[in-house]
Amino acid sequence: MPPPADIVKVAIEWPGAFPKLMEIDQKKPLSAIIKEVCEGWSLGNNENFALQVADATNFYITEKNRNDIKNGSILRLTTSPYQTAVQLHERIQSSSMDAKLEALKDLANASRDITFAQEFINLDGISLLTQMVESGTERYQKLQKIMKPCFGDLLSFTLTAFVELMDHGIVSWDTFSVAFIKKIASFVTKSAMDTAVLQRSLAILESMVLNSQDLYHKVAQEITIGQLIPHLQGTDQDIQTYTIAVINALFLKAPEEKRQEMAHILAQKQLRSIILTNVIRSTTPINDEMAHQLYVLQVLTFNLLEDRMMTKMDPQDQAQRDIIFELRRIAFDVECEPNNSGSIEKRKSMYTRDYKKLGFINHVNPAVDFTQIPPGMLALDNMLYFARHHQDAYIRIVLENSSREDKHECPFGRSSIELTKMLCEILKVGELPSENCHDFHPMFFTHDRSFEEFFCICIQLLNKTWKEMRATSEDFNKVMQVVREQIMRALTLKPNSLDQFKSRLQNLSYTEILKIRQSERMNQEDFQSRPILELREKIQPEIMELIKQQRLNRLCEGTCFRKISSRRRQDKFWYCRLSPNHKVLHYGDLEESPQGEVPHDSLQDKLPVADIKAVITGKDCPHMKEKGALKQNKEVLELAFSVLYESDEYLNFIAPDKHEYCVWTDGLNALLGKEMTSDYTKSDMDTLLSMEMKLRLLDLENIQIPEAPPPIPKEPSNYDFVYDCN
Fold first, then answer.
1. Predicted confidence (pLDDT) per residue in 260-301, tens digit
2. Within its chain, how far is the Cα of 233 from the centroid?
C-alpha cells in the first residue's frame, strides 16, 4: 500500500551526528517538525533552529515552499534565518580583518535566500552595508598597499552581498544616498580596481539606472562615457559586457532630447570602433550575454532614427525644399537659375521634367512625397547621403532610368521612400529591444553611418533587381518583395562587414531567388486530389505518434531553464527532465548552465505526472502576474508556461527559446493525453507528412528492390584507365 500523499520521507543532517531518516507529515506545522528533530538530537531552544535544503543553494524550508520537499530529499538542521542574520550582522562589524572577511563571504552566500534576506534587511542590514561601503573603504584603503588582496575581497564580498539582497526586490532602489552612488561610481572610474569589485559596481550602477529615473540623473552626473570606455579596451569579456550594459541603461533611460546628444558623445569617443576592435574582432568568442548587450546597443542606436522617420516634410519649408534642389543639381549638373532667367512657366516645366526623371510621384511638388510617415524625412536624408557620398552611382541610376521607356524606368524617388520604410521594418526602428534576443549584426559596427550605407547598398540592389526582372511600373510591389527577400537572406548569413553583405547580395540575383523559391515550392508541394487527401488522412495519425514520441524523448533528455531576476547576468539556473518511464518529472537548481545532460540523481525534487492537472501558458501563468517591468515583456510572456498540480501548486517555467517552449508544452500535453497544438508541431507535421507522401508516391513500377545490398565489386587489376589531367 503506497504511503499517504502528505507523508514525505527525507534524510536530515546535523554537524557531528549521523543523518536521520524520518517521515515528515506535511499537515503538521513546520515548527512542530523542527521541534521533533531537535528533541531527537537533544537540542533545546528549537525556535532557534530551521531546516535547509542540503545542496549548493542552502535555501531555508518555510511554510510557503515546504511542498517542494519530495521523497528522498536531504535536509539540514541549522540555525534559524533570524539567528543567522543576527550573528552575521555582528560578525561583519568585527575589528578583526580576517573575521570580517569570513563573515562577509558567508553573508554573500546566505543572501541568495529570500527568507534570510528578509531577516537581514529587517535588522537594517542594507544600511549597514552601504555605510561600510561609504565610510569603511577609506580605512581599508590605508591598508591597501600592504593588504591589497584582502581589501579587494572585503569590498567584493560586501558588494556581492548588497547585490544579492537587492535582487529580491524587498528594498526600493530610491532609498540610497548620493554619497553611496558617488562611492560606487568611484570604483568604476578608478584605474587598476579589483576585477570583482569593478564587476559588482557596474552591475549596481546598471540596476540603479534601470530601476529609478531619479537615480538615473544622479548616476549620469557621477559617471561619463569617457570613464567607461577604458573598461572596453581590456580583455575581460565579463567587464566589457557589464560596461556596455551600463552604457545601454544610460542610453535607454535618457530623456529623448538628450539621446542625440549622448549619441554624439559616443561617436566622439569612438565607441563603435572600440567595440569592433576589442569585442567583435577579439579572439575571445562572444557569449550570449555579450551578444544580447550588442543587440541592445544596435537597437538603441537605430532608434535614434525614429524622430526623422516620424517627421513629415513641410512643403513650405525652404531649407527642406533646398535638399530636393540639391538632389536635382547633383543628378543633372545644373546650378540654380537666377530668377530672371526665362519665364516662370518655362522654369516650372523644366523642374517638373527633372523631378519626373528623379522618380518622384508628385512631379510638380516632390515635397508632398515625403509627407507619408513612416519613413518621413528619413527617406530624404538617405537620398541626399547617397547623392553626396556615392555620387557616381547616384548619377548613373538616375540617368540610366531617365533614358528608359516610361513604363520600364525604376523610379528613384519612389523606390528610395519605399526602401527606407522597408529597412526600418526589417531593423524594427522605434521598437524597444527584446529581453531574450541576441541578434546583433557585426556589419553595423563597421561604419559610423551604417544605416545610410546600408541604404546605399540596398538602393543599388533594387535598381539591379528591377533590370533583372525587366519590371514595369505595375511590377513595383513585386520588385520590392524580391528585394526584401534578398536583403533578409543576406542578413541571415550575418556578414562581418558591409562589403561582405554587398558580395552576398551579388550572389542572390533574381535568377537565384527564383531557383530558391522553386526548390522550396517543390519541397512544400501540396497535392489536392481526393485520393491524395485520403492518403494524407491515413498517414497523419502515424506521423502524430512519431512527433509525440520525439517530444517525450526530448523531455527525458531534459532542459536547463533560467530563473529570471532583475539583473540578467546574475540569473540562476534549474534543470528539469522526465523519467524514462514517463511517470515523474525530476527537477532541481544548478549553480551554472550545464554542458550536457544532468543525471536524475543530482535532481532532488520530483513531481509525479499523475499529479499534474493542467498546463497553463502565457499571461495566465502565476509568475507572469507578478509586478515588474521584466514580467510584462512580450518575449518573456511568449516563453512562459506553468504546470498546475495538487492543491493548486505550480511549477513555473520560462523556456530558453521558442523551440524549447514548443517541445515542453507539446510533451506535457501529450503526457496529459491532450492535443499538441504548437507551431513547431504543425511545422513538423507538414515536413514529415510531405516526405512520407513523396516516398509513398514514388514511381517504383517495374523496379525490383533487392532485399540485400549488392556485392562490392573486386578491385581492377590495374589503374591504366585513370587519366591524369595534370
1. 888 888 888 899 999 999 999 999 999 999 999 999 999 999
2. 24
* CATH number at 540-683: 2.30.29.30
- Whole-angstrom CA distances from 288 to 237, 292, 569, 656 are 11, 6, 10, 12
Please check the confidence at residue 346 and state whether its pLDDT lies above 90.
no
Sign, CA dihedral 237-243-246-251, equals negative
- pLDDT exceeds 90 at position 391: yes
Average pLDDT value for residue range 303-317:
91
CA angle 496, 502, 506 (to 5 degrees): 130
Mean of pLDDT values over 502-526 = 81
**Interval 480-489 mean pLDDT:** 95
- The 8 Å CB, 24+ separation contacts for 400-404 are 400/463, 401/357, 401/359, 401/463, 402/357
pLDDT band with cut points at 50, 70 and 90 for residue 626:
low
Q: How would you classify the pairing of strands 74-79 and 49-53?
A: antiparallel
Element (H, E) at 157: helix 148-166
What is the C-alpha separation between 43 and 679, in angstroms, rounded?
Answer: 58
Mean pLDDT of the chain: 86
Angle ∠(278,594,587) on CA atoms, nearest 5? 140
Is the bond preceding residue 374 a cis peptide, omega within 30 degrees?
yes
Instruction: Give the alpha-carbon dihedral of 91, 97, 101, 102, to 10 degrees.
Output: -60
Band (pLDDT 50/70/90 cuts) for residue 529 is: low
Q: How deeply is 261 buried, as exposed, middle or buried, from its count of CB atoms within 10 A (0-12, 13-18, 19+)?
A: exposed
In sequence order, what E strands does 142-261 have? none
**Cell digits for 280?**
567583435
> Lowest-pLDDT range, 124-133, 371-380, 622-631?
622-631
Closest to 63 measured CA to CA, from 76, 74, 50: 50
The identity of residue 638, as a single letter, is E
The CATH architecture to which 7-79 belongs is Roll (3.10)
Q: What was the pLDDT predicted at 6?
A: 79
Sign of the four-CA dihedral 578, 584, 585, 590: negative
Residue pair 603/580 in contact (Cβ under 8 Å)? The answer is: no
Report how far residue 377's alpha carbon sits from residue 320's, in angstroms, rounded to the nearest whole number: 9
Q: Is 8 helix (H, G, I), strand (E, B) or coil?
A: strand
Q: Across residues 55-60, what is the average pLDDT? A: 83
Domain locations along the chain: 7-79, 83-305, 310-520, 540-683
Determine the distance from the C-alpha atom of residue 17 to the mean position of all C-alpha atoms in its chain, rounded to a whole number. 48
Report which secondary-structure segment, H or E, holds 537.
helix 530-557
Helix axes 148-166, 114-122, angle to 10 degrees: 100
DSSP result, 388-435:
HHSHHHHHHHHHHHHTS-GGG---HHHHHHHHHHHHHHHTTTTSPPPS
Which run of H or E residues covers position 307?
helix 306-309
Peptide bond preceding 338 in cis form (omega within 30 of 0) = no
* Of residues 580, 549, 573, the one with CA closest to residue 559: 573
Residue 143 one-letter amino acid: L
Cβ atoms < 10 Å from Cβ of 188: 22
Q: What is the assigned CATH class of domain 83-305?
A: mainly alpha
What is the distance between the alpha carbons of residues 23 and 26, in angstroms, rounded to a whole number?
Answer: 9
What is the per-residue pLDDT across 659-673, written as a single tens digit (0 to 9) for each?
999 999 999 999 999
629 confidence band (pLDDT: 50, 70, 90): very low
Q: Measure the CA–CA gap between 453 and 457, rounded to whole angstroms.
A: 6
The answer to whether 450 and 302 are in contact (CB under 8 A) is no
Please say whether the beta carbons of 588 and 605 come within 8 A. Answer: yes
Per residue in 561-595, pLDDT (tens digit) is 887 665 555 567 888 999 999 999 998 888 777 77
